[in-house]
Amino acid sequence: MDFALNEQQEMMQTLARDFLTGEYTDKVLRAMAGDEKGYTPELWKKLAEMNLLGLSIPEDYGGIGDFLDLIVVLEEMGRACFISPFFSTVVLGASSIIETGSDEQKQKFLPGISEGKTIITLALAEELAKYTPDAIQTKATQQGGDFVISGVKLFVTDAHVSDYLICAAMTGEAENPRERISLFIVDINTPGVSCKSLKTISGDKQAEVTFDNVKVSGDNVLGEIDKGWPYAQKILQKANVARCAEMVGLAQQALNITRDYAKERIAFGHPIGAFQSVQHRCADMLIDIDGSRFATYQAAWRINKGLPAAREVAIAKAWVSQACRRVMNSAHQVHGAIGFTEDHILHYYTKKARASEFSFGGVDYHLEQLSTHS
Amino acid sequence: MDFALNEQQEMMQTLARDFLTGEYTDKVLRAMAGDEKGYTPELWKKLAEMNLLGLSIPEDYGGIGDFLDLIVVLEEMGRACFISPFFSTVVLGASSIIETGSDEQKQKFLPGISEGKTIITLALAEELAKYTPDAIQTKATQQGGDFVISGVKLFVTDAHVSDYLICAAMTGEAENPRERISLFIVDINTPGVSCKSLKTISGDKQAEVTFDNVKVSGDNVLGEIDKGWPYAQKILQKANVARCAEMVGLAQQALNITRDYAKERIAFGHPIGAFQSVQHRCADMLIDIDGSRFATYQAAWRINKGLPAAREVAIAKAWVSQACRRVMNSAHQVHGAIGFTEDHILHYYTKKARASEFSFGGVDYHLEQLSTHS
Amino acid sequence: MDFTFTPEEEAFRKEVAAFLEKEVPQEYREKRLTFFDMSAQHDWIQVHRAMAEKLGAKGWLSRHWPREYGGQDASPFYRLILREELSRYHSPGYDSIGAGIVAPALLLKGSEEQKKQHLPGIASGKVIWCETLSEPGHGSDLASIEVFAREDADCFTINGQKIWTTNGHFADWNALVVRTDREVTPKYRGLTFFLVDMKTPGITVNPVINIAGHHEFNEVFFDDVRVPKENIVGGLNKGFYVVMSLLDYERTSDTAYAVAGTYLEDLAEYARDNNLLNPIMVNRLAQLRADCEVARLLHYRVTWMQSRGTVPNYESAMSKMYGFELLQRVSEFGMELLGQYSQLTGESARVPMYGRIPSCYLRSFGHSLEQGTSEIDRDVIAQRGLGLPRLR
Amino acid sequence: MDFTFTPEEEAFRKEVAAFLEKEVPQEYREKRLTFFDMSAQHDWIQVHRAMAEKLGAKGWLSRHWPREYGGQDASPFYRLILREELSRYHSPGYDSIGAGIVAPALLLKGSEEQKKQHLPGIASGKVIWCETLSEPGHGSDLASIEVFAREDADCFTINGQKIWTTNGHFADWNALVVRTDREVTPKYRGLTFFLVDMKTPGITVNPVINIAGHHEFNEVFFDDVRVPKENIVGGLNKGFYVVMSLLDYERTSDTAYAVAGTYLEDLAEYARDNNLLNPIMVNRLAQLRADCEVARLLHYRVTWMQSRGTVPNYESAMSKMYGFELLQRVSEFGMELLGQYSQLTGESARVPMYGRIPSCYLRSFGHSLEQGTSEIDRDVIAQRGLGLPRLR
Questions:
Q1: What superfamily does domain A230-373 belong to in CATH?
Q2: Among A261, A246, A322, A256, residue whose Cα is nearest residue A291
Q3: Residues B149, B140: contact at Cβ < 8 Å?
Q4: What ipTM, to 2 d.p.?
Q5: Fold observed for domain B121-226
Q6: Is the CB of B276 inside 8 Å of chain C's CB atoms?
Q7: What's the whole-model pTM score?
Q8: Is C136 buried (19+), middle (13-18) or exposed (0-12) by CB count in 10 A?
């Protein structure tokens, strides 16, 4: 049993924290939250230079570190309330290719990702916004060596700046929806692909992507045909734990600024942090954050080790989501009116936390998953 | 809109409070909780003398006051943590006969109840402990002018001291379980009736009652044959609101002793009631009690007026049950270790509150009822 | 005991409903806006003013006032019914500060001249008010108010900055508390309550946008603002007592319980129509419905006390806090119900319910802060309702 | 980072499990008793002592102690594994006071002679301990301890009454804090920590029955009880510091998280077998399972800190409080699951699960009071974990 980061992880943490503290100021955050693209090419280039875009990608394909290193960095990105296509590209896109891709596909896409040349995302959810195989109604029909994809994908993160989409579609007729899904990698410029932006409260860049008879070659299939769902589940596990790591960082930073405010702000002759109601709120925030962090790292560690992690991922996402919600509520309550204004930084954290929570299944969904894995 | 008690209600309140404060001391409560019968004939006689046993019974049958008066007195009985067959006899037994009985049946039973000569209770629930018509599997088979009842009833309150039982049984074959239930009034000494005591944590006297080919005459049918369920529903409404009134009284008294203790007990140089965590707990207790009281009286008032009350009863029972639970938890937390001992009076309140809560359907059951009535 | 309205009150409710059925702009009803998010509508200020004048013309804003000031001596339940119907019909037009707080405070503490001058404007719906207590350095703690009014012949001259002034950007008048004595202890004895015309030279109003993106609050800067002495309410250096009764009214005038109930039923309808009601959601919905009923009763108790001439004490803190915290829970329920769709703003494609879910949710962070925080309400309930001692 | 046990630890767990499989009385396993309700068994004291001696004979009670005191310098995770398995097998035998608190406190603060005298008895499972801090007038507030020990040649003579002494009715030794200086300020500097043989003349033990009907607590009366000076731990008038480290161990030695986990899975099994799992209960069960996992991790973090030689600070208050509050929630879940059947005691006909549901529920009221209340834990977390200031 060891709860400590190792040397490499500590290094990644310091690297990411220093970079983000220096570069991702409140001013930049405000700009990016309102920006249509949500990132600047300069920043992306810097991420690539630090090899952060290669995190969890095997060294053979230009990457560095493992999934746990990525999680450590994502927690830091949460602390900074970092908005960018990093999550889409590195967590969703790269993970998908790492999990499912042939050596050829890995050669083709992974070095580009780690070099910052390729932005890529996952198109999974549809109208029901559910992360189960039966919710996938988009169809890919085989025509000779090609496939023709038709359907509408929703909540596709960063589609508007992506070069490629990984699209889950029905290929087979199997009654069991788990046995009829395949994954495709689709160049966004393929005829028939169109994106419409969905505006969110958090500055998260979401899109509706329509596939209208989009023809892709058989080379674009990721993994085996009809056997995509088990891959998708692994990708979803990583995605959910990654969201947890973001939430841990968001909550930690919310507590930090709340603690500082509670020490400084005077009311009725005392720093408000001396009042028992504020102390008990803050104590509960710390419990929520410590518990969240351990639940997250346990799940991430299992994934990283290749151990079964469905139960631990479900626990982490269900628990961290609620904990983070409680933390944000308390942060606002302690801040009072000042934290209720757009000028204050807190609301970016609150909003991003909700975006992370609902992304890839909410609390009840994950509790249901947990029930089936207990 | 009027939230005040009227003169008669205030009189009943004073009468009951003075009587219980004087007669039902902590010592008596302790004795009765451990006593097998749960009451003394002397006490019962005094209740009859004050005509409290005639509450809500029409004056023509020797009674006094209405259902709201009864509710006011039940709140007082809750405050005193009063254990006795009062609830069974006056709320369950008398109400059943008032709701369903013929004039002849009323003449036969109601004066005896108000004079303290008859103790009577309701045998409704069975093995599932559910308060729905499909849960009633006890059968009454017509044989000429008689009925033969067979089945097992559970959670029959005060059966061990009762003279009569009101028994709900299947008489018809209707597929809709609401259309096949009849109510019978059964002399407990009828051959085939046997009681087995169920021991409870609260000192509530519960029993399992077996009906083994119990023959009763057609005169013992209450109301119309096969049409007993709508009556049962009305009786259940009264029973649930009456339980709410008990819980309001229990919670109010728990708050009173908690408030007094918080003012007196010194820790870290201050009365503990000065600490914000204790104050906020107590504030929440008061909210729970005020809310509970109004929800209870609104439902009782509607029943008393003959207005539809299903929605209000469901709200009251669901809300009061949870509120009372929170109040008891907080009472214990403020009292600390001293309230955790058998010697302290608090646990009688806590235990009786749980008994009232689960009696005639718990929180989720009533929330379900509320859903169907919203 | 009686848990119904009188036939007259019921008739009034019908009359109000029939009126609102016609008069509330279609867009407000279609979007099912609440009191707390309608201010985000581009045309809100105009619609609000127009509706206020219509309600004023009906005499409804002052119906529960004494006859001598234009009222009908009606029970405060008429005001309650009006506000419930406004909530149910998604209607603006009730100046919760002027009609809700300033008018009752003036009726209690104002001079005859002040009543004569200001009550008709409020009753007519033509004069909109704001109130200004807080300052940047201190919110709930009145005693530390620093903005100063210097005596200056027949006037006081005010300098300094206030904040959190709701509706300050279009209100006509301002109910203001400032310091007039810096030496006195305890410090709360150096405060004075003024009525200030917002057109007085030297007042600058800057918007403060809340986290839902709504413009409700403002900073107000006072630069040598001269206010005549006759605009003092309750006497020089006695502003604290005026504020206390003002806060009492503030706590009793809220409509959070009504807004919560309306919003919850909107959500229930949407959930039913869109098959979102699994057994877990049904259970949670029922729980919130029960809570709404209790919130309603807690509020009715306060109004009933007022109807009998009793001054509510801890009861109003309880009703206000429970209602606002409930509104937060209902807002959270909306988020859970909608899941990922709860992220979409009103401008987005695919947005359900016109984007009201996130709008109500974000706005709800303010609810446990309004009119004194929930913490202060609980202090009040414990100390006034149960007589628990203050620390030291 | 590593979230597994070592192969050696896993082997130890298997060894313990195999042993308990054979040794735990069938009745304890059948009734699925927990640490908190097994003391209600009529034969508990004998079974507890017998199991303690067996665990002692295996060397398991002291495996994580230094070799010089009979241990094997093992990681504290061995103690954790032992306690988890004891919980899983519903086994008594772990003296949570002697092995859990007194031994580590002695290892840290005891004299060489005291260690030599007392540790072997604890390690062998033959000597059972109680501890006595509280007095009738004051629970959590150590500084107000009044029971006095008067210096008297080579002894101190103790007079007065203590209360809440768990296991006092059969313990062999008592770890006791009393006042030895009534004049000093701050008052906590006048306390001294003694080790007292419970057979010393003048000690009277009276039972205090808890609301679940269990006899765990006692009042202990001291009537001229003479304790030799060499039984002082940590020095005269320095008892406060010994208590502080003792409390630190108390907070880290709990098994609430393990008991909660075992109990929850018992409930889940019963619910499944009896068709009680509607979707709402499934949802709540899953939530509690997630909570149990977090409780486990919070506890492992503390043990991990100890395994590295770090002294846990706020972390142990957090783990202890979260575990105990969780055990309350699980107990409440049992009540909800069983509904009206939850009312039946172990002696009743028709009782499910041997009456453990109400027994655990009633016992659970004590959980947020044990080893310092949840309020004090939250104070500690806020002040030590976050550096928030004390009031004044």
A1: Butyryl-CoA Dehydrogenase, subunit A, domain 3 (1.20.140.10)
A2: A322
A3: yes
A4: 0.96
A5: Butyryl-CoA Dehydrogenase, subunit A; domain 2 (2.40.110)
A6: yes
A7: 0.97
A8: middle
